[in-house]
Amino acid sequence: MTTASAAPPRTAGAGPVAAAWQADRPRWVRPAVSVLLLATAALYLWNLSASGYANDFYAMAVQAGTKNWVSLFFGSLDPGNTITVDKPPASLWLMALSGRIFGFSSWSMLMPDALCGVGSVALVYATVRRLSGPAAGLLAGAVLALTPVAALMFKFNNPDALLVLLMVVGAYCTVRALEGASTGWLLLAGVAIGFGFLTKMLQAFLVLPAFALVYLVAAPASLGKRLWQLLGAAVAVVVSAGWWLAAVALWPASSRPYIGGSTNNSALELALGYNGLGRIFGGDGNHAGGGGMGGGNAMFGGASGLGRMFGQSFGTEISWLLPAALIALVAGLWFTRYAPRTHPGRASLLLWGGWTVVTGLVFSFMNGIIHPYYSVALAPGIAGLIGVGSVELWRGRHNFPARIVLALMVAATGIWDFILLDRDSSWLPWLRYLVLVLAALVTGALLFGADRLRRAGVVLAAAAVVSGMLGSTAYAITTASTGHTGSTPASGPGTRGGFGGMGGGPGGAGAGRGDGQGQTSSAVIALLKATTTKWAAATNGSQEAAGLALNSDKSVMAIGGFNGGDPAPTLEQFKQYVAKGEITYYVSGGMGGFGGDRGGTGSIASWVQDNYTSTTVGGTTVYDLTKPLSGS
């Protein structure tokens, strides 16, 4: 950063952006990177199966994808292709292909997500290094690896792990494009974000403003060329995201599953509606507002506003280093205000700062459904800002303004981490005081120039890193060592899972009734295992169906999809399946409340009750669809 520090060494004939990555790397870099990646792999792969099937909703679809290629392509909840999950299927492709290779299990399903985490850490390091040097890259990689929500989601089967990896791939390709105004690398960045769309739809696009801004500002090319290249990258995004949407639209609806979460069986409508503008503005199936299932509920992010990322829901997931990252961004942009257009330090700040600000603001003010674990998408931006800002300010610490800002970052982190740790004061109660004392000592040492003493600089730098990362590291390690299940997992000490938790592994909670009563579950599961029909059973909603399918290894129809509210199958379709002898049992219960009877769950339940014989299996009412009542 100009004024704050010296720019990275430059190679003769190289442009300002290319200079940083062309500099020779010290001998310690390769061993340090190896340690970082091995430690990350150990953290994410260790005890990987502790969460069992994690989120049974996605696990059910992964299982289906290992049995049927059409199910794999569309992301169907069952091999019979009744209805899909309410997200695009890219993350399911990864997990299901792993299951096809290694056999479907908790480990084979979660292993790709853990590797996505290791890959994300490696690419954050590589991306930051190319503009700000290896020390900044290593620090950024470590911050990402030890962010609590990252330690949670890179060991979980929600789409977020692959989403983060693809966004980081996009950032890396954008930086490579900056080095020589490369159209090819910029197009690859667009492709990465397009596949991010196929992972979690419009959330992938939150980083596009940062990518476009940094390229428009810092690429070593004329303005006209930069604009045309960005237009080409936009086309790459559309093509790489749109091919699957086109395939869904062109595929006859009668021979493919219903698109779960949509109102008209359209993947495009799902992207723009429930998973798009509905998430921003509320409505369209998104529960918004103050309490209950809405934004005021802790599982759904708490109240919207600037304080959301620091609040009870998101704070311990992501905000440990957020104050320091914002300080680094503001200071860095000020210090580089007179720098050349292509200055690498400012380019890095624009990239990671734009990522953090846009994503953070959108998450803060969303009025639709939002869960705290979404904040894993913020983690790379914060990590990049901490890596770039801390190292550049340290390099320029002999300038008093840079020293003040660095001390302010340390102090703010110490105070904020103390507040976060105090929210659960029964867990390691001494830790918050240790963090506060260390931060105070490092802040004082920086202000009084202790680093100028002989050989004290390295010790002070190490102490600053430890004090800044101690709280988040402790939270990340306890998160990684704990099993998590359900649809709204949370990081931190203790087994924490939210709404929709149905248990995890084989024979675990959620099999049959979703209530953890293994005796009841085993009786229902034994019944299903003896079936030979296309669907062993049908039940309302995926929460009941997932436990049945995962524990019986049979195809189970989730009537109405995730919440029982989708119109798949209709009553008439269900009657046809039964008439053909394709469904053996109907298991009563399940989840149909949130969707009302829009999906026909109530009508189907009533029709079954009126026309078929029921029996009680371990406390669960089961209807034998091969035995109609007399006169039916």
UniProtKB/TrEMBL annotation:
Superkingdom as given in the UniProt entry: Bacteria
Extent of Gly residues compositional bias: 494-517
Transmembrane segments: 28-46, 110-128, 134-154, 185-218, 230-251, 318-335, 347-366, 372-393, 400-419, 431-450, 457-477
Membrane topology (UniProt): Multi-pass membrane protein
Region (Disordered): 482-517
UniProt keyword list: Cell membrane, Glycosyltransferase, Membrane, Transferase, Transmembrane, Transmembrane helix
The keyword Glycosyltransferase belongs to this UniProt entry's keyword annotation: yes
Main location: membrane
Domain Glycosyltransferase RgtA/B/C/D-like: 86-243
Keyword Transmembrane attributed: yes
The protein's Enzyme Commission number: 2.4.-.-
Residues making up the signal peptide according to the UniProt record: none
GO molecular function, one term: glycosyltransferase activity
PANTHER family xref list: MANNOSYLTRANSFERASE YKCB-RELATED (PTHR33908), UNDECAPRENYL PHOSPHATE-ALPHA-4-AMINO-4-DEOXY-L-ARABINOSE ARABINOSYL TRANSFERASE (PTHR33908:SF3)
Name assigned to this protein: Glycosyltransferase family 39 protein
